């Protein structure tokens, strides 16, 4: 019986090792199949990923091209608007400058005309002043002449009054009284 204690476990161990080796070979084969399927799946995934990346890259390039095109169109549109505004400003400046030039010429001609009218008015005022001066001098001379006439008349009347020729002889009737 002692032998059986050793033989049975050894036989069982041999059977176990036999089946375990078979099972481990099957496990290795299963693992290899699983690894192969994983590799195939990874290859599919990599292919899909590469395909998606390629699609994304093409889409990104297309979007970038479209974005660049839109940006250049916007920049050209902005530049055209800027040029139009700049040209409008230049035209406005030119028209305003022309308008200012015309108004300046009008102002200069009006200033000349105003200066001429002021000179004319000054000459007329001097003429009026001279005439008024002459009128006052004439009035003064007339008054002086009238005063001289009055004085002369008074002098003549005084002399006549003092003169015997101008007196009437005494009235004999007055003397009788």
Structural overview:
This protein is mainly alpha-helical and 177 residues long. The protein has one domain. The chain is 94% helix and 0% strand. The protein is built from 2 helices and no strands. The chain has helices at 2-162, 172-176. The N and C termini lie far apart (233 Å). The mean pLDDT is 89.
DSSP strand (E) fraction?
under 5%
Regions with pLDDT < 50 over 5+ consecutive residues? none
C-alpha end-to-end distance: 233 Å
In total, how many beta strands? 0
- Report the radius of gyration as a whole number of Å: 72 Å
What's the rounded overall pLDDT mean?
89
Features of the shown structure:
177 residues; mainly alpha; 0% strand
């Amino acid at each position: 019986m002692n032998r059986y204690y050793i033989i049975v476990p050894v036989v069982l161990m041999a059977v176990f090792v036999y089946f375990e080796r078979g099972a481990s070979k099957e496990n290795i084969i299963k693992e290899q199949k699983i690894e192969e399927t994983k590799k195939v799946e990874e290859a599919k995934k990599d292919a899909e990923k590469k395909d998606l990346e390629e699609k994304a890259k093409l889409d990104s390039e297309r979007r970038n091209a479209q974005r660049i095109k839109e940006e250049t169109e916007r920049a050209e549109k902005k530049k055209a608007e800027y040029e139009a505004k700049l040209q409008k400003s230049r035209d406005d400046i030119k028209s305003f400058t022309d308008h200012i030039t015309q108004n300046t010429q009008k102002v200069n001609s009006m200033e000349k005309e105003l200066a001429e009218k002021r000179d004319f008015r000054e000459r007329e005022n001097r003429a009026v002043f001279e005439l008024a001066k002459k009128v006052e001098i004439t009035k003064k001379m007339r008054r002086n002449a009238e005063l001289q006439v009055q004085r002369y008349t008074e002098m003549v009347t005084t002399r006549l009054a003092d003169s015997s020729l101008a007196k009437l002889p005494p009235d004999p009737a007055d003397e009788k009284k």
